[in-house]
Design a protein that fits this description.
By secondary structure, this protein is mainly α. The protein has a domain of about 160 residues. The chain has 11 helices and no strands. The protein is globular, with a radius of gyration of 24 Å. The protein starts with 12 loop residues before the first helix and ends in a 26-residue tail after the last helix.
Amino acid sequence: MENIQFQRSAIDASGAFSSAWEQVKENYGTYLGAAVVCWIMLGCFSCISWFLMGPVMGGIFYLASKGHRREPVEFGMMFEGFKKFVPLMVVGLIQAIPTIIITIVNLGMNMGRFGLLMSNPEAMRQAQRAGEIGGAEAAMSIAFLVFYFIFLVISAIWGLITYFAIPLVMEYDLSPIAAVKLSGRAAFANIGGVIAVVLFAVLVGIIGILLLCVGIILVSVPVILVANAIVFWQVFPRQDRPDQYFAPPPPGTYGFGSPQY
């Protein structure tokens, strides 16, 4: 689909989370089940989750969008993303690039330390006694902290660019690259709203922690997942239902009465 339009400065973060809470309450069991399965598939399978993130989140978006349009929802809808597995997997991998890089860097550093230790254990023990290892590790830790801070900033920008990419593939069948490009343009046109969404998500997460931590999965995750779908529809309103967004004003709105003849 070409010429997909998006709205600028269209995000109402508080409205999205309020609507998400009401939507979750109406079909709580369905959304809770989807959130639990999402958490298991993306949080418990290590590197495999990089390949599953796109299809899983695409299915969550499909389920949440159905509920947002007041259509019947059922648990099985969360697997709809697997019908577009390859493009959604690619988008998921693109989104995960910062995580993949930091994981590789961590792994490389750990393997480097282990390799030095195993290559000459006696020399390593002597260096430790002389304090050489401690100084080298301190310098390495400082360098890593600087690198990690810079990387957090880059990751935040990358997350902003790819924020709408999975829904765009799911809804409009865009190619991964086209989805990322359009997502970046729409996100930067709504950057204040996206930041507000992140802050609201943090607040909802804190509320979940206060609810003996179990509230994170019981409340926070379902609401955040649904809110993200609602935010997408705020920025990309459905073109097939213009009346939903542009209702004509009632007669007399502009101060004109009925025509006189």
